[in-house]
Amino acid sequence: MNMEKGFYTLGAFSYPADVQIIKGKLESEGISVFLKDEYTLNSDPLISDAIGGVKIQVNENDKERAIEIYNEIRNYAIDDNGDPIICPNCKAEKSETYYTRKGIINKLFPFFEKRKYRCTQCNIITQP
Do the beta carbons of residue 37 and residue 47 sit within 8 Å? Predict the structure, then answer.
């Protein structure tokens, strides 16, 4: 009997529409997907930043395969010219926007926080 461990969060996105391609790809590969807070944001999209967006989750048993698929199709951060953000540490072009959300103001209004990036290869956090 296969005991399911729980859910693993692949990523969080501002709006439910942002996850539909990833969700469709994972489901086409036989991986069940759960969109946490999807209905909350469909009813009130203005609270997305306050609750951390819609989270795309998969079963822990599908975690490794889901991560591989997600990494093949995910969008990485780009600068104002449309060029990929390059990690100063490992030179990878696979960074994501990162918010620390420390302090009450940044938790309630994360758009006030200075833009930072987290490299998905070496996990270093940088500021432009």
Answer: no
CATH architecture of 7-73: 2-Layer Sandwich (3.30)
Question: Which pair of structure tokens corresponds to residue 97?
Answer: 């926007």
Overall pTM > 0.70: no
pLDDT tens-digit series, residues 53-90: 899 999 999 999 999 999 888 777 888 888 888 899 99
Burial class (CB in 10 A: 0-12, 13-18, 19+), 19: buried
Strand partners of residue 35: 56
DSSP 61-80: GGHHHHHHHHHHH----B-T
Within 13 A of 93's CA, how many CA atoms are on the CB side?
6
Domain with CATH 3.30.70 in the chain: 7-73
Contact 29, 65 (CB under 8 A): yes
Strand partners, 36: 55
